[in-house]
Amino acid sequence: MEKICLVFSIIIITCFSHLVQNSQDSKKDSSPIKLTAEQDHKRLMKQLGIDSLRPGPSGNPKAPNAANVDESKATTYSSLPDLLTFKNGKKVTSAKQWLKRKKEILEDFEREVYGRTPTVEGQW
């Protein structure tokens, strides 16, 4: 019984000393890095693998990327898509089918409205 207590005590002491050492090491490594906004932007672009950004709308109405302020040029939608019709044209007729249609709608919404988060290897 004494041997078991001794071994158990040694294991606890070893684990505790290891935890203390790791917490001290993490304190050394967790100091904040001070970057300017430009440096942080460049670092983030590099992490995401983005070489350049598309220019925003120009205030010059004759520029090729001029901002559209004329509502008549905006796309109009006369009707919204039917929520109870699958992409293949079949109608939803049961609660089980609705779950499948709901996944289609959520997928479209993620792709067209929210957008997807790019994956960066080794980051998450």
Textual characterization of the structure:
The protein has 124 residues and is mainly α. The protein has helices at residues 2-29, 37-48, 95-114. The chain is flat, with a radius of gyration of 29 Å. The two termini are 46 Å apart.
Short description:
By secondary structure, the protein is mainly alpha-helical. The chain is built from three helices and no strands.
Question: Globular, elongated, flat, extended or rod-shaped: what is the shape?
Answer: flat
Oligomer: single chain
Tell me the Rg in angstroms: 29 Å
Number of strands: 0
What average pLDDT do the residues reach?
A: 81
How far is the N terminus from the C terminus?
46 Å
Proportion in helices? 40-55%
β-strand amount: under 5%
* Helix-strand topology string: HHH
Helix/strand/pairing class, anyone? mainly alpha
Helices and strands in order, then pairings?
Elements: H1 2-29, H2 37-48, H3 95-114
